[in-house]
Amino acid sequence: MNGHRYTDEEKAFMSEIVPGHSYAQIKRIFTEKFGWEISTKQIKTYITRYHLNTGRTGRFEQGHIPSNAGKKMTADVYKKISPTMFKKGHVSGNYRPVGSERINKDGYIEIKTQAPSTWKLKHRFIWENTYGAIPKDSIVIFKDGNKQNVTIDNLMLIKKSVNAVLNHSGLAKYTGEFKEAAIKLAELKIATYQAKVNYRKGVSLMNKEKQLHIGDTVVMNNKYYVSARNKGKKFTVRTEPQMVCGTLSVWLEGVNGCYAVDGLDKVNNE
pTM for this one? Predict the structure, then answer.
């Protein structure tokens, strides 16, 4: 019935029945109620025109039971689909045996190490089979920069921190006989930076040590957790600073155990 004018009752019914129902269900229920057969095309047009939401996602909801659940395939159906069924022992066309290789999107060679689909980077696989497991803080790189040259002589184990410096400083571009020199330079950069950090820390601790003496008044700063009871509370230092398990510490009056010097700030006595 093209060009059908829907009554107010039909419109109200469509608004109520559309959500959660298929076109076939809407067609059947509508036809039974109003006595004329609405087509699937009319239903689609109506839903689009009046912006109705069916609420259907096109996916099976959790708990859905297929209509053929528990039913045995008939002989006729089996006969029709059997030519397209995999036979026992069938091997798919894209099957790759263990030991197969492929190139991934980043240009590295991968090798299949276990069925059905376990692949590993070949250069890591070769290194581990030669020298054992790769530490979590290290990676294997290529001396000549060629990702597909996976001979053991072309592989080198370096720290991830060193690799970061190589990439950040532009040293990663060096290959061959210059690669080891670049790595040594990266390691030197890291050592220099760490020495500066340790020096600053040592100076800071030395300054703290010079500042704190027996009888000084201090408060706990926010470097470590401070309970509400001790926050802002003044304490008196009762020992000279000394190393305790690698940490410069002092003992405070009214506090059990020692306290790290860098967790204290000296205050003036009022």
Answer: 0.44
Helix (H) or strand (E) holding 42: helix 40-49
Looking at residue 263, its amino acid is G
Residue spans of the domains in the chain: they are 8-49, 101-185, 212-267
CATH topology of domain 101-185: Homing Intron 3 (I-Ppo) Encoded Endonuclease; Chain A (3.90.75)
Strands (E) across 46-154 are located at 101-103, 109-114, 118-121, 138-142
Under the banding of pLDDT at 50, 70 and 90, the label for residue 96 is confident
CA distance 53 to 61: 17
Average pLDDT, the chain: 85
Nearest to 177 by CA among 148, 145, 152: 145
Alpha carbon distance 217, 234 (integer Å): 6
Task: Let me know: does 84 contact 77? Beta carbons within 8 Å.
Answer: no
Maximum distance among all Cα pairs of the chain, rounded to whole angstroms: 101
Element (H, E) at 127: helix 122-131
Instruction: Give, in words, the CATH class of 212-267.
Output: mainly beta
Cα torsion 120, 122, 126, 127: sign: negative
What does the alpha-carbon distance between residue 16 and residue 5 come to, in Å, rounded to a whole number?
Answer: 18
3-class SS at 27? helix
Predicted confidence band of residue 35 (pLDDT cuts 50, 70, 90) = confident
